[in-house]
Design goal:
heterodimer; A: mainly alpha; MetI-like fold; two-stranded antiparallel ribbon; 2% strand; B: 422 residues; D-Maltodextrin-Binding Protein, domain 2; 6-stranded mixed sheet; 4-stranded mixed sheet; 19 helices; 12 strands; 49% helix; 14% strand; globular
Amino acid sequence: MSSNVTSGGRRPPRSGRSGTRRSGLGRLGPLPWIGPAVLLIVVVVLWPVYEMVRTSFLKISVSGFVRGWAGLDKYRQLFDEPDLGSVITATVVWTVGVVALTMVISLGLAQLFNQRFPGRRLTRWALIAPWAASVLMTAIGFKWMLDRTAGVLNTLMTDLGIVDSPEDWLGDPSTAWPWMMFVAVFVSLPFTTYTLLAGLQTVPGEVYEAARVDGAGVWQTYRRITLPLLRPAFLVGVVINLINVFNSFPVIWGMTRGGPDSDTATTTVFMYQLKSSDIGESAAMSVVNFALVVVMVAAFLKVSRWNQEEA
Amino acid sequence: MKKRMLVLSAACAAGALVLTACGGGGAGGSADGTVTLKLVAADYGDKASNSSTVYWEDVAKRFEAANPEIKVDVQVVNWNDIDAQVKTMIQSGNVPDVLQTGGYADKVADDLLYKAEEVLSPATLDNLVDTFAKAGEVDGVQYGIPFVSSARALFYNKKLLADAGVTEPPKSWADLKAAAEAVKKKNPDVVPYALPLGPEEAQGETLIWELGNGGGYTGDDGKYTLDSEANVETFQWLRANLVEPGLTYSNPAATDRRTAFADFAAGKAGMLNGHPSLIQMSKDGGVDYGVAPIPGKDGALDSTLGVADWMMAFKDSGHQEEIRKFLDFAYSKENTLKFDEMYNLMPVTEDTLQEMTSNGKHKDLEPFFDLLPKASFYPLGDTSWDAVSAEIKKSGGTAVGDDPAKVLGDLQKKAEQIAANQ
């Protein structure tokens, strides 16, 4: 009975409190609704990032035993790696080279696929093939086609007289790089071309008509009208390709495993190579990679805002 | 009608049997305190029918029959994954009792293993071939228990050499170069000497050549000597005499052992350093091969590179007595002989070695049996070896490139750093 009374006595303030809670909930706004998504991001993105950073400060034995805190030792070790300089240079050349080639070729391809010609639908479908196939599969396919003894491309080039005898293309960094860049461009083309094609189709026909009436030549029309109007699609293509190509692991791992030594490795592949000797140092490389990607994303955000202002 | 009754009653009987069997098993496991040993082993087979699972489950079954109070839980893992899986097991505290894999010393560094004498009876311990038992020692105490072994020798394609007018296998480096030149002249499409220094097993080919010049990975004091004068000289010779004249692959540092073996078995390579598994490959490829001692700088070597795989026992669960019983059983002649014959591997125990050399069934392996007692090993007992070996695999091969002294010097620096961090 008495308990009833006390609970009765407390009822008004409690309802008042629940009122403030409701307004608190209200202030939370959409948070409860996006909560699951946030949780997912915390679990699959933020937590691994935390673990990665933590691992880079740990001393871990080859057998997998955590031996304690390493401080900044692993980073010092990483920056002392004699190969690191050449790996970073290679990463820059690789990223810039592959993205530039991809964009230039895609511009041409998009223009071609924007024309009306018989079989356009079929060729547009065919362009999807390198995109639909697994990148690792494509890379391994090219590796075997270039094989010194059994490679079909080697046989073809020998038969056509391009080379005197079958060559070990992927064993020598100076020939392995161009071939790997070729494959990387090959697998990047479909996405980029479709992005640019979509951009081309948003350019209204009247603009071209007006240009023609004003007597602009073909090249002038392309440079003064098509390219500026294509800029949003072009920027999206550049930035997404930059990130993809920078992180491109399967092409290089599938074809040369970064070898001999680290002569055909980018920072992503180098990180994987380090894993076999020192997990802590490998994690340090991951952190550096992560920082580079963050810088690139920041650049993307800046560029896209600039793009909005222009538009 | 009668038939249906019969089927029904048979089904009932079978059902009852199954039920009682289950009940019995469950009750036995909980009541009488049996110990379960967790065995993790590498898979030496290449298909389901010759998987090592078959072997180990048979051993476990017979062992359990003889020792009803001990159960053995067998887990066989393929070679590609076993290192990573064992690492995960150790990290997550799910440590095996007995492990059979490629290396042991890194586990000694973290004090995870029983000493060999703690988990082997004196008779079993005595039965191990001395060179291998010695290779299982860390600082004079044996932890690694050798399980199977293999040794390297020079394989040569008899036909290719005979066609080129080479009548006997090369003994010195100069002989080898001359033979390679003759083969190339006669048959420009084959690789005269296959030199695989790619990441698969650069550490093996490297050591074989360095031994030929009196070099090696460690000095008498056990410290790393990766860039010793003899080693640098070895790579200078390889570069000037095999790589630059085109007597081997154009990029040895990017060529893996399996490529070299495949080329030899296809009759596309004249000579290479191989181990016994190449015997069957050559036969399958119809190659008439010969086996000779490894050529050294001034003459054939009387030692060679020996490779062993290891058994080890973890202290974590404290099943010392049970592990000893199991290992004594697994190392009986019957079992080791069965395993070695199943995969054409070389024994590490005296009684099995005796049996295999004398029973006449292993003529192919005879040149290798002679080499075993004189084999040289990697610095297996050094707890830093696994990490150093990984570095040699990655970049060691590039020492046949522009600057052997620099590549080996960088490796030496890394090795010293790794050793200092142990």
